[in-house]
Amino acid sequence: MTEKQATARIEQLIQDTVAVLDPKPRLEIIESMSQPGSCVDPTDQGSPDRTVVSHSYWMRDIPRSRNGDIGQQAKRYWESKGYKITKFDGLNTNEPNINGYTQSDEFLFSIETNVDGDLNIGATSPCIWPNGTPEPSSGT
Fold first, then answer.
1. C-beta separation of 54 from 122 below 8 A
2. Which residues have CB under 8 Å from 126's CB, separation 6+?
3. Which of 108, 104, 138 shows the shortest CA–CA distance to 125?
4. N-term to C-term CA, the chain
5. What is the pTM of this model?
6. Which of 7, 24, 38, 127 could form a disulfide with 50 if both were Cys (CB 3.0 to 4.6 A apart)?
7. pLDDT for res 46
8. Pick from 37, 60, 29, 62: which is nearest to 124 by CA?
9. What's the confidence (pLDDT) of residue 43?
10. CA–CA separation, 24 vs 43, rounded Å?
11. Which residues are 108's β-sheet partners?
């Protein structure tokens, strides 16, 4: 998988989730949380030259009184897709924090509530080579 393919998959995960939410949020990119990063996976002894791709968005135009409902809707949708939910809390207090991953390709996803009650939705790829395969070594 290339960085471009990982980005497309992340956007698909986020957009498909947002499409089922009511009320529908307006997404605002969080630039600082939407950049490729280093692949740090303590269970994987692979190359440090791999990266992960992440995108996160503020979910605007959602009344805070509906945050828990939005979390419930997203959780139900993700479960209906066969995704694994690894953490969910705050649904009854309008402060949802939900984490999980797609079992088929191991993309992480989340909805989180910040201290001001704002929701964000994000997704992160597994470790990938930016161009899909390792770069050829210069010594051969």
1. yes
2. 52, 105, 106, 107
3. 108
4. 24
5. 0.88
6. 127
7. 61
8. 37
9. 57
10. 38
11. 101, 124
**28, 57 in Cβ contact below 8 A?**
yes
> What is the pLDDT, as a whole number, of residue 45?
57
| pLDDT tens-digit series, residues 31-42 | 887 888 888 764
What is the model's pLDDT at position 137?
A: 59
Contact 61, 26 (CB under 8 A): yes
Instruction: Tell me if residue 14 falls in helix, strand or coil.
Output: helix
pLDDT, residue 40, reads 72
Query: CA–CA distance from 74 to each of 21, 46, 98, 106, 111 (Å)?
Result: 7, 33, 9, 18, 8
pLDDT below 70 — which residues of the chain?
41-48, 135-140
